[in-house]
Amino acid sequence: MTRAFQSAMTILNPDAVFVLGDLTDEGKWASDYEFDATVRRFWTMFYHNSDVDFNVVAGNHDMGFHDVIEPNRQHRFEVKFKTPSVQVLTIKDNVFVLVNSITMETDMCSMCSTATEQLRHASMQLNCTKYGSTNGQISDSKSSKECDSIQKLPKVAPILLQHYPLWRVSDAMCTGVDAAPPNERYEKFRPGYGALPLDASQRLLSWIQPRLVISGHTHYNCYVVHDGDVPEFSVPSFSWRNLNNPSIVLATISKDKYEIGKCFLPQESTVKMIYIIGVFTLAIWFLLNVKKLKKSLVGKN
């Protein structure tokens, strides 16, 4: 994974990189000491130059699922990776909203209440930029006045990035060489485990009004279109542990359009076969040369 990432950074030279959660494997169980070691390993693996805008969001492996998470796990992730539950970024006049899916539930638990306020402020910031009022009503003078103290953004529809996909029943509609295999594709998702619950998903779509959603979590590729013709790309895993054919998603984004593609890593099965053939070839070469060496020694004697 390290070599694949560093090669991609050298060849592709991106302006920005987004890692969509599960930065760690056992963050939900690890002690603080173990978590610190994992964080150091992550930054070693994903080393990048300071001119690259590198951003991350939290995944369930980083802190646990919503119903079992402890506040300290969320806190240490946000501190170590310097990322709040909701973050609004402007990169080359494009607006990105990054959210922690684990805190997007609508049950008003303590961490979700804090995240909801952050999400509300992001929504107000987007509304002030687009409509000139915090509530999205152009004629609301009181709401318009509240915008005076809110920082404006470039006038462009945002892109939403998160770990969980927005609610869908399953991956049944997903296609492609890196889509879920048939034995998994029709398994129904549990809300808050396989995908963000429906009410939380609808709130994100309503408050953020994204032109595009990019998510991860399922380890497989998927493309769906939500209400309001909002497309969502669920990106496949970048690890051979999860896929035989992992990939990096590439995007070229401007104010009025975007193009998305993928760069596949070598298939793990292919790499293994190359090693097997290499070892087998070396073994044959060694045996042949041993025989020649023996004949040469016998001839000298």
Word description of this protein:
The structure is a single chain. The chain is α/β, with parallel strands linked by helices. The protein has nine helices and ten strands. A six-stranded mixed beta sheet has the order 3-4-5-6-8-7. β7 and β8 form a beta hairpin. The longest helix has 33 residues. It is elongated, with a radius of gyration of 24 Å. The relative contact order is 0.11. The model has no long low-confidence stretch (mean pLDDT 91).
Give me a quick take on this structure.
The chain is α/β, with parallel strands linked by helices and 301 residues long. The chain has nine helices and ten strands. Helices cover 38% and strands 18% of the residues.
